[in-house]
Amino acid sequence: MDRRGVLVAQAPLAGTKRVAGARLWSPRVVPSSPDAALAEIAFVLGRAGALAAGARQPAFLEMARAVQRRAEAAGVAGFLAPAALAGALEVPPPPPAPPPSAPGAGPAGTSPASAAPGTKPPAAPPGASTAAASAPPGPSAASPSAAPPAGPGGAAPARAIAQVPTAAFVGYTAQLLLLDGPRALSVALAEAAAGRREAIEQFAMAVALLAMNGDGAVGDRAAIGRTDESGAVLPAELTKIASRGLEVERFTYDGHEYRLERGPAGLTAVTRDGKPLTAAAIPFLQPDPNAKPAAPATKGAPAPKAGAPAKPPAGTGTPPAGTAAPAKTAPPTKAAPAGEPPKPAPAVAKPPPPPPKKP
Q1: What angle do CA 328, 331, 335 make, to 5 degrees?
Q2: Across 156-160, 231-235, 315-319, least confident range
Q3: Based on the structure, what is the number of domains in the chain?
Q4: Which among 33, 255, 269, 296 has most CB atoms closer than 10 A?
């Protein structure tokens, strides 16, 4: 951001209040809980930086609006910062139109039975359908169940999401990078690995803001933060940032290079060190509760020892060549009937002895 404009913000250094992780982070990652005062300051800095960048470079806010529209079209999963959804301005829906009166009904609030005697009910307009009279009762347009459906995950509908000011949308996104940039990167990479690239596009938008020089150009470095277990925010940095205009196409963090390929409708691919994204390359990921445990490896039959005779194939009685035939055993004896002595088992013929060797 512009170093020539100074924005003063104060926060107690010994604060004990921390932000709830679910307020800042997607459930895809293990959340961090930074200091609450620093979190508010980070949002104010991000929003003020977006307004200042838009004053110097109007194309930045135009790019941010296009990024915001793509996020809105994707629903809840399209937002890198859940706080941007919580900051949406709720717009009440327009009043519902009164339901058309059924044929044969009297004036509003009356029924045919309560109409004055001797009066005929108003005739239905020409071409009107009489199906409404036989339709089953259902929720009226003014009932709560007829309200416009909520967005994915029970969030505000797209009409309310669209009311988030673009500067605030950028501010919520930059807030994550200033508080815990590595974790924000993990959220964006996890969504990109799942085929949703809106979050990584918002991450790149915030990188362009934090790396912007006083003349409105994107520099090659951006200061970010990282939150430790105590909630303290420590300094970190993105380096080797390369961009085409205001669109960041490459940056490096922790020795790994990330490349963003773009098309007319936004990002099309994300790589890490020239390779496609994998879950093993994304830190802070939450374990998948639906993942099935890997089946234990089955042990095969032990290999025969060297020189040991091979076993004959199953179902055959012929031993392999070069092995001795198994010795014959006497057949089992049958039980004799009651009162008779048992019969002796038949003798087994023994093979003749080998001839004596000649001297």
Answers
A1: 165
A2: 156-160
A3: 1
A4: 33
In a domain, 292, yes or no: no
Question: 């459930």: which residue's tokens?
Answer: 27
312 falls within a domain: no
- What are 101-131's pLDDT values in tens digits? 544 444 444 444 444 455 554 554 444 444 3
What 8-state DSSP symbol labels residue 76? G
Q: Please list the residues that pair with 160 across neighbouring strands.
A: none
- Residue 222: phi and psi, rounded to 5, are -145, 130
Q: Which residue has the tokens 């005062």?
A: 37
Residue 99 neighbours by CB distance under 10 Å: 10
Which residues are paired to 212 by β-bridges? 218
Angle between helices 198-210 and 166-193 (to 10 degrees): 130
> For residue 253, what is the enclosing H or E element?
strand 247-253
DSSP type of residue 195: T
CA of residue 84 relative to chain centroid, distance: 17
Instruction: List the domain range (segments joined by +) for residue 231.
Output: 21-91+154-281
pLDDT computed for residue 241 by the predictor: 98
Task: Flag whether 28 is in a domain.
Answer: yes
pLDDT tens for 327-337 read 555 555 555 55
Per-residue pLDDT reduced to its tens digit, 179-202: 999 999 999 999 999 999 999 999
Does a structural domain hold residue 354? no
Measured distance CA(178)–CA(91) in Å, rounded:
30
Sheet holding 266-272, edge to edge: 222-227, 233-244, 247-253, 256-263, 266-272, 275-276
